[in-house]
Amino acid sequence: MLFLYIMGIYLFIKGLREYRLLVWSTVCLALTPWAYSTAKLFLPMTIIGILSIWNHSLLKIPKKPLLIAVVVFALLAGTFTLNTVFGGGAERFGGISIFNSSILENKMGPARVRDEQVGQQWQSRIFHNKFTSYFSNFSNNYLQAYSSEFLFINGDPTPRHSPSQTGQLFGFQLFFLFIGVMLFFDSKIDLKVRLFLLFWLLIAPIPSSLTSNGGNHAGRLILELPILTILTGYGIYAIFRQINIALGQKLYIALIGLLLILSVINYQHTYWVHYPWDSERWWHAGFQDAIQSTVAEEKNYDKVIISNADEPALIFFLAWSQFPPARFQASYPLKEVDGGKLGKLQQLDNYYFTEVGSSVGFYSLAEALPDNALYLATQKEVNVDLIHDPGRLPDGLRLVKSFAYPSGAPAFYLLTKRSPKM
C-alpha cells in the first residue's frame, strides 16, 4: 500500500508537467484500497486534498490526458467501492469502529452509573451520550497516534504487531523530527507540496482513529510512516546544511550512521532474542509440533480428539497436518456428533474437535475420554505444568507427549486414558 500511495503522489506531481504520467498516478492511487483497507477512507481524503491544493494546475491540463486519468481511476476505484458497499466489505469496519454500540455501552455505562451514585442523574445524558463518546474516542485516538508513548517508547501494545517496549520510530529520530517539523513548512520547497505534506500529516491518523484502540494500532497507522520519515530526513538534512566545515559534515554523517547502526542492532536483538518469547502465544507457537505429532500418532488410536478449549484449532490442524483440501471441502460443514461427557464434537474423518471454549476439566478428563482415544489438550484447560511437574498427572491419564513454547512454558499435551494394566 505504501509503495502504491507514494508512487501515486510522486507520479501525480510529475504528471502536472509530464501529462502521460497522470494515468499511472491514478492507477497507483486507485489500487491502494485493494492493498489495505485503511486506504478506503484515506484515499478519498487525499483526492479532496489534491483537488483543493492543485485545482488551478489541474484546469491547465489538456482534456484528453485528464479525461483518461479520470476514467481509469473511476473504473479501478469504482469496482472497489461497489465491493465495499454491496459485497460486505464494510462489515469489518462496523465491528471495530468507535460507532459500534457495544463500544459505546462500555464507555457510557460505567460513567452514567457513577453519576447516579452521586446524585447527578440530570447531568448524565449531557456529559455521557453517544456524541460525546464519539468525540472522546476519536480525539483520544488521534492524539495518541502522535504521542511519544506510541512513536518512541512502547509502540503498538499488540505483540503480533511489534515487539513490546519498542517505539514505532528509533529514539534518536525524535530530535530530527522536531527540527524537521520546525523548518520544513517554512522552507523554500514548493508551497503546494508543503501544503499537501501538511495535509497528509493531519489526516494520516484519521482512518485509524475511527476504530477501537486505533490510536496505537501500527498497521492502521502505517500511513503516518512516510510523512514522519520525510520530516525526519529533512531535519537531518537541514542541520547538515548549517555545517560549513567539511570535516564537521563528515563527522555529522558518521554520527547519524552510528546512531542508525546502534539503533538497528538494538532492535534486532529485541526482535530475535526477546520477541519470540514475548509474542509466543500471540503467534500460536507450539501448534506445529503439536499437530504434526498428533497426526503421527493417529494410526495408533481409534479416534483423535483435538481440544478447542483455548481457541479454534481447526485452521491450525488443516495447515500443519496438510489435510487434503478436497477432502476437507467435501466434508464441510463438519458433521456434529455426540461426544458424551465431552459434549458436541465436530468430526473430520478420524479427528474430532470439541466445542470452542468448552472443557470438562483436567481431573474429569479420564472419565470423559473414550477408550483408545488420543486427546490433544491445551495448557489452559490442564492448568498445571506437566513438563516440570509430571507427578500431577491424574491416575486415569497417560501423558503421551508434551509441547512447550519457545520460552519453555507448557503449551499442549497429548493425553490418553491409562489402561487398567498400567
Task: Walk me through what this model shows.
The chain has 422 residues and is α/β, with parallel strands linked by helices. The chain has helices at residues 2-15, 22-35, 39-53, 55-59, 63-86, 91-96, 101-117, 121-127, 130-145, 148-153, 173-184, 191-203, 206-209, 224-242, 246-278, 287-297, 314-321, 325-331, 365-368, 379-382; strands spanning 303-306, 335-338, 344-348, 351-353, 373-378, 397-404, 410-417. It has a 7-stranded mixed β-sheet. Helix 1 (2-15) runs antiparallel to helix 2, helix 3 packs antiparallel against helix 12 (191-203) and helix 16 packs across helix 17. The longest helix has 33 residues, at 246-278. The chain is elongated and about 85 Å long. The chain starts with a helix and ends in a 5-residue tail after the last strand. The mean pLDDT is 90.
Give the structure's gist in a few sentences.
By secondary structure, this protein is of the alpha/beta class.
Shape: elongated
Oligomer: single chain
Q: Distance N terminus to C terminus?
A: 60 Å
Strand order of the largest sheet: 2-3-4-1-5-7-6
Class by SSE composition: alpha/beta
- Structure summary, number of beta strands: 7
How confident is the prediction overall: mean pLDDT? 90
Contiguous low-pLDDT stretches (5 residues minimum) are: none
How many H/I helices?
A: 20
| Rounded Rg | 29 Å
